[in-house]
Specification:
Rossmann fold, five-stranded parallel β-sheet, 10 strands, 16% strand
């Protein structure tokens, strides 16, 4: 993560329309979290713990001065469920809402253009239309770009270094996560051409389609596999590691959790550190809310 971008995005929070919504500063503050993972998912629990740790470092403790309302996802990403969760959270009048993917940010922005939204996105926030610019985000969304598409060329190059005889590389993409999928379709072909690789894009959005994609890449004799950064894919990392090992296909992933599950290699951001930073970030935004409330109620 480039910390300069993190700080400049935070600066945009000062322009949010908080004064009109301000309450007496002594009241319990409220955070909404809309997560695509199920509540009992191990990743959901570890990320939530990292987020809470970041909050606590700024003096925000659940039950003492802040409460958190959650809306959870399911085993597969369900856009309708996310839209419903966004509407429900906005109706609770939170001081800030945490969005865990770009489609969730969009769902929340459709539900409200005034409730502050914090995101940890695996995509350029300007290119995805979430903010106007890094220096002046505008609107009601701000957050962290965890840099995935930006390191595509590096990750593909590392895979090529690891398997120098590879020529054909299968790329697994999730069209249900449109912003990331589209970025992969832009970045991967260009990076592949630069090092003389041929790519085959396979679209997968369910566990069954992942199985089918492996059958296809084995049939077509792919030399290696490049998995796009995607929340659903991350939740299926054991399946990826098992299939790649069974078919003896070297694979490159975006986060270390894949390797911890048995995958070959990864290159990318420390995901839990990003969630910790988002907790700190959210705590800073709550401080701004309280400052605004104190000025309003004097």
């Amino acid at each position: 993560m480039i910390r300069r971008e993190f700080i400049t995005l935070l600066g945009g929070a000062a322009a949010w329309p908080l004064a009109a919504r301000a309450q007496p500063s002594g009241r319990m503050r409220r955070i909404g979290i809309l997560m695509y993972l199920a509540s009992d998912d191990a990743d959901a629990q570890s990320r939530n713990a990292a987020f809470l740790q970041g909050l606590q470092e700024l003096g925000w403790a659940v039950g003492r001065n802040v409460r958190i309302d959650y809306r959870w996802g399911a085993s597969n990403f369900d856009p309708e469920r996310m839209r419903k969760g966004a509407v429900e959270l906005v109706a609770l009048a939170p001081d800030v809402v945490l969005a865990t993917t770009v489609p969730i940010v969009v769902a929340l922005q459709e539900a409200s253009r005034t409730v502050p939204i914090v995101f940890a996105g695996a995509i350029d926030p300007v290119g995805a239309g979430l903010v106007a610019s890094l220096a002046r985000p505008g609107g009601n969304a701000t957050g962290i770009n965890i840099f995935t598409s930006e390191v595509v060329a590096k990750r593909l190059g590392l895979l090529h270094d690891l398997v120098p005889k590879a020529v054909r590389v299968a790329v697994l993409n999730n069209p249900a996560n449109a912003p990331v999928a589209e970025a992969m379709l832009r970045e991967v072909p260009e990076a592949a051409r630069a090092i003389g690789l041929q790519i085959q894009v396979l679209n997968t959005s369910t566990s069954r389609e992942i199985e089918a994609a492996f059958a296809t890449l084995v049939r077509d004799r792919a030399d290696a596999l490049f998995v796009a950064p995607d929340g659903f894919f991350g939740s299926r990392r054991v399946q990826f590691a098992t299939l790649a090992a069974a078919h003896r296909v070297p694979a490159a992933y975006s986060f270390r959790e894949y390797v911890e599950a048995g995958g070959l290699m990864s290159y990318g951001t420390d995901f839990l550190d990003s969630w910790h930073q988002i907790g700190v970030y959210t705590g800073q935004i709550l401080e701004r809310v309280c400052d605004t409330a104190r000025r309003t109620w004097r």
